[in-house]
Amino acid sequence: MSSLRGAGLAFTLALAAAWLPGVAMAHSYKLGSIEIGHIWAPPPKPGVDGVAIYGPLFNEGKKRQTLVSVSSPIARSARFRLLKEGVESWPAHIELYPGRPVSLAAWGTHIWLSGLKKPVKKGDWIDLTLDFGPAGKLAVKALVQNSASE
Question: Which of 3, 63, 97, 133 is the most exposed place for a label (fewest CB within 10 A)?
Answer without folding.
Answer: 3
